[in-house]
C-alpha cells in the first residue's frame, strides 16, 4: 500500500489485509459467529441495523478482528456526513465502504480508512470512477461486479489505489482471475469461498 497516502492515519495500514485474499462479507449474525472463530482477521459487515452496530463492533474487537462497515446498508441510519462521524467516533470500525465519495472523505478525516465502491455498468461509470478517485483518493476501490479481470487490470495500470473485486464472484476460478488481474483481495458472502481461502 502507498505509505504516503496512509500518513497521519491512526488506524494501522492494513498492508493489503495482511495477505487475506478473501474479505468475507457477512449478512447474518450466524455467519459472523462463524468468522469470529476462524483465522480471518478482516471482516466486512453488510446488512445491519443501527441498533446492532455497537455490540457487533465490540464483539469483533473482543476477538481481535478488524471490522469494515458497509455504511450504505445500515438500516435506520441516515446516510449523510453526520452518520459517518457517528460511526467513526462511536462504532470505531477499522474502515468503511460506501458508494458516496463524501462518506469516504469524511471517514478519512476521522482517521478511518475509506473504501469507495463503484458499480461499473458502462464506460461512463468507469470514467467517473477515474475522476472521483483522483479527487477523493480513497484508500481502496471496490469494483462491482468483480468478474471483469480486464477492467481491473486497466484500473491498476491507471490508478495508484489498490483494487478490491466484489459481486458475482462465485467460484475459485473467479477469485483467481480477479487476483491475477491485480485485485489485492476479493469481497464475497459465499461461505464456500471463505473456507477455500481461509488464512493459514
Q: Report on the biggest sheet.
A: 8 strands, parallel, barrel
Instruction: Report, as a whole number of angstroms, the end-to-end distance.
Output: 22 Å
- Indicate the overall shape: globular
Average predicted local confidence, pLDDT: 92
User: Which regions contain 5 or more consecutive residues with pLDDT less than 50?
Assistant: 1-12
Order of helices and strands: HEHEEHEEHEHEHEHEHEH
Strand content: 15-25%
How many strand units? 10
Describe this structure in words.
- The chain has 200 residues and is of the alpha/beta class.
- It has 9 helices and 10 strands.
- The protein has helices at 15-18, 29-36, 50-62, 81-91, 101-109, 123-136, 149-158, 172-180, 191-196; strands at residues 22-26, 42-45, 48-49, 66-70, 74-75, 95-98, 113-119, 140-144, 163-166, 185-188.
- It has an 8-stranded parallel barrel, surrounded by 6 helices. It has a two-stranded parallel sheet with strand order 3-5.
- α4 (81-91) runs parallel beside α5 (101-109).
- The chain starts with 14 loop residues before the first helix and ends with a helix.
- The relative contact order is 0.15.
- Residues 1-12 have low confidence and may be disordered.
- Regulates expression of the glpD operon. In the presence of glycerol 3-phosphate (G3P) causes antitermination of transcription of glpD at the inverted repeat of the leader region to enhance its transcription. Binds and stabilizes glpD leader mRNA.
- InterPro entries: Aldolase_TIM, GlpP.
- This is Glycerol uptake operon antiterminator regulatory protein.
- Keywords: Glycerol metabolism, RNA-binding, Transcription, Transcription regulation.
- It comes from Paenibacillus oleatilyticus.
Amino acid at each position: 500500500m502507498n505509505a504516503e497516502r496512509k500518513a497521519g492515519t491512526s488506524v494501522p495500514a492494513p498492508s493489503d489485509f495482511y495477505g487475506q485474499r478473501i474479505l468475507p462479507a457477512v449478512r447474518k449474525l450466524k455467519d459472523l459467529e462463524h468468522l469470529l472463530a476462524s483465522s480471518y482477521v478482516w471482516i466486512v459487515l453488510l446488512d445491519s441495523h443501527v441498533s446492532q452496530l455497537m455490540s457487533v463492533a465490540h464483539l469483533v474487537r473482543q476477538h481481535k478482528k478488524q471490522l469494515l462497515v458497509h455504511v450504505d446498508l445500515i438500516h435506520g441510519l441516515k446516510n449523510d456526513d453526520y452518520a459517518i462521524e457517528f460511526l467513526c467516533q462511536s462504532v470505531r470500525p477499522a474502515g468503511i465502504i460506501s458508494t458516496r465519495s463524501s462518506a469516504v472523505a469524511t471517514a478519512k478525516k476521522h482517521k478511518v480508512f475509506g473504501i469507495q465502491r463503484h458499480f461499473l455498468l458502462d464506460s461512463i461509470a468507469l470514467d467517473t470512477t477515474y475522476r472521483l478517485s483522483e479527487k477523493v483518493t480513497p484508500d481502496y476501490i471496490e469494483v462491482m461486479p468483480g468478474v471483469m479481470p480486464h477492467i481491473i487490470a486497466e484500473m491498476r495500470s491507471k490508478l495508484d489505489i489498490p483494487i478490491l473485486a466484489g459481486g458475482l464472484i462465485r467460484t475459485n476460478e473467479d477469485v483467481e482471475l480477479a487476483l491475477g488481474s491485480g485485485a489485492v483481495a476479493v469481497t464475497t458472502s459465499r461461505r464456500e469461498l471463505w473456507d477455500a481461502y481461509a488464512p493459514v
